[in-house]
Amino acid sequence: MQAHQHTDISFAKHLDQTDTLVRYRKRFYIPEGTIYMDGNSLGLLSADAEASLQRVLTEWRILGIRGWLEAQRPWFWFAEEVGNMAAPLVGAEPNELVLTGGTTVNIHALVSTFYQPSGKRTKILADALNFPSDLYALQSQIRLKELDPQKELVLVPGIDGHTLDEDRIVSMMTDEVALVFLPSVLYASGQLLDLKYLAGEAHKRGISIGFDCSHSAGAVPHHFSEWDIDFATFCGYKYLNGGPGCPAFIYINKKHFHREPLMAGWFGFKKEKQFDMSPYFEHEQSAGGWQISSPGILGSATMEGSLRMIEKAGIEPIRRKSLALTNYLIALAKELLVDPPYNFSLATPEEEKRRGGHVAFYHPTEAWRISEALKAHNIITDFRTPDIIRIAPVALYNTFEEVWRVAHAMKDIIDNEEYKKFNTVRKPVS
Ligand SMILES: *Cc1c(COP(=O)(O)O)cnc(C)c1O
């Protein structure tokens, strides 16, 4: 690729003409006049997700309580069946996935089972760059065992404030560690960790390992079972486009189905005997055993349509296009945005295999006001404190031309000092 060539919009248009996933864009509701590059925070609504939600609403209207057994996809098994639909995205085997809970609730449900401090092994190894909610959950799980999180939660530090070194993580897997819990893709910098390598190293040392894959599921293929991951959870409203607050997924490796869910609830009971209403808990031997409450069928319904579409598109083609989009964004940024007076730098590792679905740019002084200025251009990205702008060109609904427009808008905002028009005070949701 010649330097001058890809900065020309005709090059972006050429890439769009060769895009094999282009037909999916039409199935999404893209906010009018907007370039939406925030699918790693909240994915967009598709006609497919809307149709499955509409069907469930109609079933409720017509069937009332009979929907639990008589709906087209009976609500009683909905969470397990939609879990199985997600299996190809993460390489799970039948019954290893269920759609349930929020991400943080699921971390509690999982860690309560997998964190069993005993003897010298009392610590949880996590990382200082993880999404804070995950770390809060780990701290309270340690307290529930009557231990001190200050001592027992060990955080691998970031190398440069943005990324982690896998070998450093492995070097901290000592014989005092009972559990390792890490993100697949770091929410701020977009670094993708090597899950297979980390799982192998943890197991060599007799340590269980789980992952929060909220920032990779639907963008990056995983092979949980092949890699022998013990457990995982991932959110449904990011690249899986399930809608605001829709449930997350739980993955349990089938070798652990016998273990005890320690945040028990009646929807985790043995499926065939749940309505015997026994006073004593016996869990279903599947990921479904870790459910707690009745599945929120309305909030889950979007996921059925959305997953059917993602599966049709295929997670491998999605990953290929996602990398092509982010490669293009990085190439444009190098050409246009890194030198003074622009001063952006890439917080995401450049190597493809170390990147998830979004690219994070660091700006030393004006990240917040630049992201506000992008909004004024009807470009939705997001800001993460203190100095990161995250841009997620999503394979199913973004184009190379949009990437071109975003990179050029960033350049214009600096050229014309547009960011200076915005208040330096941050809003409550960024
Ligand atoms: C999005 C995300 C969450 C969100 O947690 P909820 O409980 O669903 O609100 C948690 N952890 C990580 C790593 C995330 O990316």
Structure description:
With about 425 residues, the protein is of the alpha/beta class. It has two domains: about 130 residues, Aspartate Aminotransferase, domain 1 (Alpha-Beta Complex), CATH 3.90.1150; about 260 residues, Aspartate Aminotransferase, domain 2 (3-Layer(aba) Sandwich). The chain is about 40% helix and about 10% strand. The protein is globular and about 70 Å long. The structure holds pyridoxal-5'-phosphate (PLP).
The Cα radius of gyration reads: 22 Å
Bound molecules: pyridoxal-5'-phosphate
- Structurally, how many domains make up the residues? 2
Beta fraction: 5-15%
Give the rounded overall mean pLDDT: 96
The SS-based structural class is: alpha/beta
Q: Which CATH class of the largest domain applies here?
A: Alpha Beta
Name the CATH superfamily assignment of the largest domain: Type I PLP-dependent aspartate aminotransferase-like (Major domain)
CATH architecture of the largest domain: 3-Layer(aba) Sandwich
Give the overall form: globular
Distance between the termini: 36 Å
In what order do the strands lie side by side in the largest sheet?
A: 2-8-7-6-5-3-4
Characterize the biggest β-sheet.
Answer: 7 strands, mixed
The percent range for helix content is 25-40%
What is the CATH fold-level name of the largest domain? Aspartate Aminotransferase, domain 2
Number of H/I helices:
16
- What series of H and E elements makes up the topology? HHEHHHHEHEHHEHEHEHEEHHEEHEEEH
List low-pLDDT spans.
Answer: none
